[in-house]
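re the bet — no i am not wrong, look at it urself. input seq straight from the record:
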Amino acid sequence: MEKAQVLIVEDDGIIAMDIESQLKQLGYGVTAIVGYGEEALAKVKEHKPDLVLMDIVLKGEIDGIEAAAEIRTQYDIPVIFLTAFVDKERLKRAKLTYPFGFILKPFQPKDLEVTIEMALYVLKVDAERKQAEEGLKKSEEKYRTLFEVESDALFLVDEDTGNLLEANEAACKLYGYSHEELVGLKAWNLSAEPEKTEKAIKLVEKTFLPLRYHKKKDGTVFPVEINANHFTLDGRKINLSAIRDITVRKQAEEALRKRTKDLELKRKSLEELNTAMKVLLKKREEDKTELEENVMTNVKELIEPYFDKINKTTLDDHQKAFLNILESNLSEIISPFTRKLSLKYLSLTPQEIKIVNMVKIGYITKKIAKIMKISPRTVDTHRKNIRSKIGLGKKKGSLRSHLLAYEQ
């Protein structure tokens, strides 16, 4: 918050400097120090201080009282009088300027602070009161116009008697009454639930009433929304009620509720269908994996052993060529399965599995040999066997890339 700015009007230089020092210690600002009433008026016009500390007795053509009167009239700035003594005549004149306080010299800093704070507080309250009064006046001027042109039905209701004191044109059209007929009714005459309306009128602190049903002059019942504001006028408790016909909104809400309910049922149905599809897809994937595993197992257990046995027999060149073609074609057939299935179906030895794991993390042959304490040539032999078992054989391609593919 900005500190208050004070103009010091004191013709004794030593006292003026002491006052300035005290003000600054108390946290106030000093706009200027002057010793004449004429100077005070000029500085007020120039700086517009928040408050003036004015010595009553001043040198010059006008004294402190005259200067204070001018400041009060022209600028409405509070003045606090400083004086060492004052006679009855000066005191009478000073009172006519409506000062915000008197401080008798010599004074203590606390006296100065309390008097200034009270003056500033009174000034603030007075400004707020004037602002409120001005706002109220403007509101009253606008009230009648707004009351009449408002599209919602508006009523003024006496909360004690329930009498309708005033109604606008929109209210007359909504309920089907003339202005004279409507104003002559009780508030509960308009309600399809009179016992609730009579109680609602007396709920002064309640500013919004839930859904109500009202009836028109012809007896037609329709839903309304009521916004109520309460105030006191000439000692009477008045309720200003804004009535809105919400028939269309209620119909839309009902349609929306039905639509929401239908969508919720469809959502649950889709969730159940989605769950069933997930189960079916999972079962399908499991069946597919099981089929692939069975194919691999059958090939490894029922076919490949016979290739080994045949290779150990005496074969001519044509027979060996046909056997190689048969092994190659079989390898091509099962290669899609081998890339998907776990390494456990590839009949790797424990030594080969260790090498596979090190190849996958990027170790080269020399490092693998050093870790396993075998020769690099032995590692190369194992790598060759691994390539053969995973269907890579003499094909070009990175062994590490193919091994990593098994983890995808």
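see?? The longest helix spans residues 247-311. told u. also Confidence is low (pLDDT under 50) at residues 200-208. so pay up
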